[in-house]
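Quick check before the chapter quiz. The format below is the same one you will see on the exam, so make sure you can read both the input and the output lines.
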Amino acid sequence: MNKYLNYWGLIFVIVILIPNIVFAITCKDGFENRYQNKLVEILEQIGRFGCFISMFLIIPFMSRGYWFKQGESVYLVSGVILVVLYCLGWIVFGKEGSIRKSLYLSIIPSLLFIESGIISGNILLLFFAVIFPINYRPILIDGMLEASYPSSTTLLVLSVMPTLVDQVNRRSTNLRFRRFVCVMSIVFSSFMVIGRLVAGVHWFTDIVGAVILSAGLYCLYKAMVLLFCDDQ
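Here is the expected output.
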């Protein structure tokens, strides 16, 4: 990666585009637009092409570079794994027009763009990665795609469970009980969050948005606890 061009990012983008181009040529009616919201459609296109360009084009003041020692190695390994998984998805699902195919082929690129932006410190890529996926429910409700951002279930669970763990740690002196509550909270939270995604009622970015919002709420809660409670 030089100052202005990320060669690995360019390779990742090219590899991702190949199955899409082949599919577009062989199945001209394969990319059916089912959205009625023009603004959402425009934002999705901006996010998509913004991610593609930001993956390999580096704007110096918008990119901080790898922020830990083995950053480039982690970037390459995780990127290769996600690109391979994406291509395998096209092979496995083929011309299938199912919800699971749509979910898989939207989640993997989203993960690639987000992890690439985080590891390489590419702020512009992260910005486009947030608006890239369509924030509508993958499953049709009464024949229509319904807005679903963010996931309220994820927001609720990840706002309540960390505060539970914090309060138990503050008020209980039983180490085994504290560990039990912590482990069960993690298991329950993971089950709820992953379950919402697997059930097909939320896009990946619905979950990411809820995680970010709940993290902000927890930080606000923690700040209030530290401000008004003198015992800890």
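If your answer matched, good. Residues 87 and 93 are 10 Å apart (CA to CA).
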